[in-house]
Amino acid sequence: MALGFLALGDATGEPIWLMRASALARAILEQFVKADGAVVTTTADATLIVPAVDLQDHDAPSGTSAAYALLARLGAPEPRYAELATKILTHTAPKIEASPQSWASFTASAAQFATSVHTVPVLLDSAAHVKATAQGRCEHDHDEIEVTIAIDDGYHVNANPASFDYLIPTKVSIPGASDAKVIYPAGQVFKPKFLPDGISVYKGSATIKIELPPGNLAKVRSAPASLELQACDLQTCLPPATIAVPVGQ
Q: pLDDT below 50 — which residues of the chain?
């Protein structure tokens, strides 16, 4: 209902709908959200031996994922709501990681609000599972930047070029350097159960080289390199991410 109020506020511009959504949010916090981020489904929870919680959701959001979406939406202007949304996500993240297909609505909301609300790394974000550094140097006939990516155990990113058109390749670009030559390493063959022929991926670590005309390195150091990728595990692919990578010496 509160999400419906917000939709009415978006459509009409009338502040009353935001006020009503906020009132419901306060009631949810007082009655259903625990200090550790758990969301219970009954006010009688204190008298139960086993907490009453949602076990999953699909295309229709559970109470837990709807409460998260509401608090995340309200969290943009209200830090206290953003903090509680992060607690709910952190508490529920292990369940989503273990069975993302069972938390479809929550996963979609977490991907939507990951960069606009949360101030801590979100496990459902590709960038949370990949680290990148970039180093520049001058060679005798060109300048060169090496971008090294480190991928968490259990995850991979697609090689460039990707094995299929529908896969998102790992891609590096340098702002203001349209004449840069990007050299991607060969990928490793990864064979998930649903693709017995395998796909080309980067696992563990990989180094991407960018060659620039002589004298261009100093110009591009003022802006970070842009690394686009999508992290996947054996079960699912996370939402794509773009990582800004400063170029060091």
A: 120-121
Measured CA to CA, the distance from residue 81 to residue 71 in angstroms comes to 5
Could you tell me how far CA 92 lies from the centroid of its own chain?
Answer: 15
Segments forming the whole domain that contains residue 15:
2-113
- Phi first, then psi, for residue 87 (nearest 5°) are -60, -40
Name the strands in the sheet holding 205-212, side by side, starting at the edge strand that comes first in the sequence.
181-183, 205-212, 143-151, 130-138, 247-248
Tell me the residue length of the chain: 249
Q: Which two tokens stand for residue 86?
A: 């992060």
Question: Is 120 among the domain residues?
Answer: no
Residue entry with tokens 């030559």: 181
| Residue 228 falls inside a structural domain | yes
Last residue of a domain, one of 113, 135, 165: 113
Burial of 182 by CB count in 10 Å (0-12 exposed, 13-18 middle, 19+ buried)?
A: middle
Residue 194 tokens, joined: 């649903």
Strands 199-202 and 156-158: antiparallel
Select from 68, 79, 85 the least CA-distant residue to 3: 68
CB-based contacts of 12: which residues, under 8 Å, 6+ apart?
Answer: none
Q: Considering the entire predicted model, what is its pTM?
A: 0.56
Query: How confident is the model over 169-200, as pLDDT tens digits?
Result: 999 998 877 788 999 999 999 987 767 889 99
**Which residues lie below 8 Å from residue 42, measured CB to CB, with a gap of 6+?**
48, 52
Dist. CA 136–CA 113, nearest whole Å: 34
Which residue, of 52, 78, 113, is where some domain finishes? 113
